[in-house]
Amino acid sequence: MDPIKPRGRPPKAGSKGAFTKDIRLLMYGFGDEPNPAADSVNVMEELVTDYITEMCHKASDVAKDRKVTVEDFKFILRNDSKKLARVEELLHMEQEIKKARQNFDVKDIDE
What we know:
It comes from Dentiscutata heterogama. This protein is mainly α. The chain contains five helices and no strands. The protein has helices at 20-29, 38-63, 70-76, 81-103, 106-110. It is extended.
């Protein structure tokens, strides 16, 4: 019987396990076991890393010679309404959090 071969490609130097903890928690949250199999987590991490890399390359292509902006990412997601709506929601929430932090005064708590 042949020994079990690892699946996927070997992790790139410096990126090993960058999302492992988060992916394990997400997999559990979406119905997997509390401790998902390591090869499953590695495959998911590879998919996430590839997706992020691909999106960054596309945004860079859109930006051409200028700095990549959020608008570049929104442009490449323009045909995927669910992802674009999620980006818009997260950007809106970021602005609300910034406003709340500005209104929050730590000195009021100390007194």
